[in-house]
Design brief:
The protein has about 190 residues and is α+β, with helices and mostly antiparallel strands. Helix content is about 25%, strand content about 30%. The chain is built from five helices and seven strands; from the N terminus they run H-E-H-H-E-E-E-E-E-E-H-H. It has helices at about 40-55, 65-75, 75-80, 165-180, 180-185; strands at about 60, 90-95, 100-110, 110-125, 130-135, 140-150, 155-160. A seven-stranded antiparallel β-sheet has the order 1-7-6-5-4-3-2. It is globular and about 60 Å long. The two termini are about 15 Å apart.
């Protein structure tokens, strides 16, 4: 419920998803390392960061989990959105959709070719997908988790990707990954 109105409110998004910058302060008592307090300021900050990153922004889709799953896992549907927000087109998409199975593709834009690949870690059809993500020829490795939950006639997606060197790199990559598919960059509120 929206506190000022006392009832649910839907926001209409007309632009790309933004981001927020948080400044977290953890005042703590000083001391000596030989007798640290029960919880240090560093531990408090670490817990705060984990609490924030473990609650990704949920996206909502007007389609059922089976459709969202298909968009994420079927090569002919991956081709339609992966990398398209930056003018790339996915080719040679291979998907071995099982724990321990690999996936790969070539992302092409003119003379530029990127090779992207990974391994599936968790595969629960229409519910949860966890896989590694690597741009070949770089030191970039990450893990993506996508959790799908039925919500009314639609689906709620919790998306989390780790492994970025900084917040800006994570934002740019999420924008590229999610913006290509109209269902991802223009989620519809369900309800």
């Amino acid at each position: 419920d929206f506190p000022l109105l006392g009832r649910p409110v839907a926001l209409i998004g007309i632009a790309e998803k933004g981001y927020g910058t948080l400044r977290i302060t953890a005042p703590a008592k000083g001391g000596h390392s030989s007798a640290p307090p029960p919880q240090t300021g560093v531990e408090t900050l670490a817990q705060a960061v984990l609490a924030i990153t473990s609650q990704p922004f949920p996206l909502r889709f007007a389609g059922p989990p089976a459709l969202v799953w298909a968009i994420w896992t079927r090569p002919e549907l991956i081709r339609s959105w992966f990398g398209s927000s930056h003018g790339f087109r996915a080719h040679a998409i291979a998907v071995d959709l099982r724990p321990g199975g690999n996936w790969s593709l070539r992302n092409v834009k003119g003379d530029v070719t990127e090779h992207v690949s990974g391994t599936y870690h968790e595969v629960l059809p229409h519910q949860r997908l966890v896989y590694s993500y690597h741009f070949e020829g770089t030191e970039f490795f990450s893990v993506i988790s996508a959790d799908l939950t039925p919500e009314g006639d639609g689906t709620r997606l919790h998306f989390l990707q780790t492994g970025f060197p900084d917040a800006q790199a994570r934002i740019e990559h999420a924008r590229e990954l999610l913006a290509g598919c109209p269902s991802f960059h223009q989620p519809k509120e369900i309800g």
